[in-house]
Amino acid sequence: MHRCLPILLALLCLAATAMGEDAFFSCQGKKLTIEQLHDFDVAPGGKYIVGVEPMEALDGVVTSFEKAFDTRATSKMFALGMFVAELNQQQIAWLLMNKQVQYVECDGVVSMVVRP
Question: What is the pLDDT of residues 96-108, one digit of tens each?
Fold first, then answer.
């Protein structure tokens, strides 16, 4: 069951995006829009899952991300339309502005603090 958890979470996110929601950032039980993300400080270097729709757009999104930030995705899951990467707040915001990105969510424990 433990190994299935990431896949189940991904499927839940895909189902939510199929209902027409805007791209969102999810971490520590919070679901934020790009506008709300600016009220938080996200610790750099955390691992995140990025969901892309349509799935066929994954390679293009990853390529443009890697070129824009001179970095690499750590994993690409073409069958699920998602990739994993270590991201900072600027990269998360950039991804959320891409119309083909449906969500960015924490993959494991990531620190996030509300700005005063």
Answer: 999 999 999 988 7
